Amino acid sequence: MQEPTPQVVIDIHDLSFQYPRGTTPAIKNINLQIHAGEYVVITGPTGSGKTTLAICLNSIIPQLVEGEYSGEVMVGELRAAEHPVHELTAVVGMVFQNPEDQLFSLNVTDEVAFGVENMGYHRAEIIKRVDEAIEKVGLVNRRNYSIFHLSGGQKQKVAIASNLAIAPQILVLDSPTADLDPISSREVVNTLLDLRTREPSKTFIVVDSDISDVITLADRIIVMDNGEIVLDSTPVDLLRNHFHELDKLGIRMPDHIRMMHWLSSRFPELTAFHLEEEKVRQILEEYTSSGRLRFTLPPSARSNSAPDNPVVRFKDVSFGYSNGPTILEKVSLDIQHGEFLAIVGENGTGKSTLMKLICGLIQPVSGIIETSGVNTTTSKLEEVLQHVGYLFQNPDNQLFMSTVEDEIAFGPRRRNCPPEEVADRVNAALDMVGLQDSRQQHPFTLSRGQRQRLAAATVLAAQPKLLLLDEPTTGQDQVALDNLMHLTQHLIDDLGASVVMVTHDMDLVARYATRMIILDKGKILLDGTPLEIFSHKQDILAKVSLKPPCMISLTNHLTGNNDCIPNYKWAVDGAIIA
Amino acid sequence: MASPIEFFSNVEKDSWVHRMDPRVKIIMVVCLGSLPLLFSDPWYLLGWFLFFSLLLRSAKIDIRPIIALFYGALIMVFVYIMYGTFLAYPEDVLALAKFVWRWGPLVATDIGFYNGLILGSRLLILLMPVVLVIATTEPSQLAKGFMKMGTPIVISFILLATLRFLPLVFEVATRVMEAQRVRGLNYKTFKERINNFKFLLLPLFINTLRQSRTLGLAVESKGFGARKWNEFYRDFSMHKSDWVTLTALALFVLAVVYVRFGLNLGWTAIYRP
């Protein structure tokens, strides 16, 4: 007997939308049907129209966001554009990217109850729905917690629960893991996995430019570019047959998928395309043990820095806010010239504090810090910062001049460069980040991607001896991240700068860092090259909830002596096929 | 320095004020907020200040995260003092002044000084019962309290949004100022703060606007526009202790009114020590 076709829950015809100040439509000619129980991932590079499409589903566009709207979105029997957002709440739930920005109450239960209370139910029904939703996301033992005491992942689970309590048929999640550390991301993904099993008729739509976390959940992936749907298929079909198109668009994919694609392109007998990391590992083991595939091991990586000439020196540094707990305890650390140091660790272990101490924004309670030979405690902040560049997660925090040109010139001028040199540096930085045509524009009229590039340009033009990078992967697609890392490498190679990066992205560490330290409870737990730590200290990594990068896990059993291959590029460049 | 958002940790504590019904707290803040306005004698105002300090202490409130707010109020006190000192009083009032200093059109008097001090102190004192209630009540409970007292849902909601959003503005300002300091803008001296304030405004506005927009969309996506907010998960009802507090409050108000108007104490049109 043939299975009945699932009910269409979203039916979109010729949908286009242009924002009032946009020069081109944010989305155009969208035709799409989504069925009950489907798990759909909508992906695409930054600015491709993913979020715009998502907020058309619950009529935020056009009800709350103005612009030129044409076409039709049917949500069940309702023509979305004709209904205010609250009339669609019971049908379409929406979880936004940053949990901090969307939680309205200070307490878990109040937040989960907020939506149901808005629906006007009686108290008994409110209690039943809230309790069920809290149980579904696994927050029963935290139901009375203040949201300030929750991790990023738990906050995102509260946001999901507050939607589940309303019991919408469709749940839209806009980059639900983009602002989270890997542990929190895993928590959210596991919750979604569990929900999928428990509520098979619910439709999930996840919008994300990074498909690493959600790839195994998806039934279908829709790829957008320049406001249009360019690909729409199953994950296996897309990743096997359209891999290069996805890569070109800057969609972030996990290394095991890249490896699977490489394996299937080199070994035609591999007809099945696997999405699970474990399956890819098994194939690699099979091929390496049979001698058909051999990987070249990288040399023991050593930092290219000159020893005993540190650009940053910490000696027995402790720090804690007054009347607060100790955040860093007797940390001693030398960062050498030309070194690319990654600082990793769980949230709250003192990573950001360490960065602020390096640049003198805060002073240690005890110990000595020297940055570029300047004592940060006894010197003025301007002296400490003379040779330091700091790239923040959010570019909007650090832009403040009225033109792009002045923004870039600010650093060199502050360093008393002559006008000709300022002009040269501005031009060079504008060329490098591709903003030459926008030099007279106000920084806040640029797109987010352009603002990120502008922030990088302000650092480049200042030619710092030390660059501090704060979570560079947050909110970036692969192309933007590659560009940033290229600029960073330029600073190291051509200007001899050192880089200190705080990140949760272990792939990034394996690919770029020459040294990494792991902070735990305010102390340095491990200090070494990424390869050493990832290959030989996996038990300690596990204790602080850190997972080695995918390629390390894939290859650490292949060589017999726990030596690993740090990244996908190294693996395929050095692979020998018999 | 403690972050302003940490002020809300006070809500999780337990004290006799925390346990009160939100409606009683609303009535209390209205009464205690208006009673000091009946007094102008600095000694009585000092009494109010000490009384509110004791209340804050008994409610276990840590004001350090929002100490900047009190500094801001102190600046207002200073502004009032300056304004009062140089206010152009009529000659008959000037005749009563013990100290008069003239410089061109400016006339400084001790009467003006004390009047400014009194006006500014009242502002500072008014802040204290408001802090007492905000620090001991979940914003949503407070808004629901207003709702149950018949306040329109939109007004209750605006109050709730303000309480939720104010600390976020402080957070954003701190982050932006840190990023700007790293790039070379200083906010250490008074002059630097004034000069560089203009650079803070736009990023602060853009970042705050972006956060508030997301918050607004999230709230709307959870059906706030339906305006059906009337039964709640955590319901509250008046307990015996609330009635006792209300009775005590009523007696206190009567006593204060009697002291002020029955005994005619605590008011002086022109204060001179």
Brief rundown of the structure:
The complex is a heterodimer of chains A (about 575) and B (about 270). With about 575 residues, chain A is α/β, with parallel strands linked by helices.
Tell me what the structure shows.
The complex is a heterodimer of chains A (578) and B (273). In chain A, a hairpin with a 5-residue loop joins β12 (310-320) and β13. The two termini of chain A are 48 Å apart. In chain A, α5 (108-118) runs parallel beside α7, α7 (152-164) packs parallel to α8 (182-198) and α15 packs across α16 (419-433). In chain A, the strands form five sheets. Chain A has a six-stranded mixed β-sheet, sandwiched between helices. In chain A, 38% of the residues lie in helices and 22% in strands. With 273 residues, chain B is mostly helical. Helix content of chain B is 63%, strand content 3%. Chain B has a two-stranded antiparallel ribbon with strand order 1-2. In chain B, β1 and β2 form a beta hairpin. In chain B, α2 runs parallel beside α5 (110-134), α3 packs antiparallel against α5 and α6 (139-148) packs antiparallel against α7. Chain B is flat and about 65 Å long. The interface between A and B is large, with 69 and 55 residues.
Proportion of residues in extended strands of chain A: 15-25%
Give the overall shape of chain B, derived from the CA principal axes: flat
Could you give the order of strands across the largest sheet of chain B? 1-2
Strand content of chain B: under 5%
> What Rg of chain B do the Cα atoms give?
22 Å
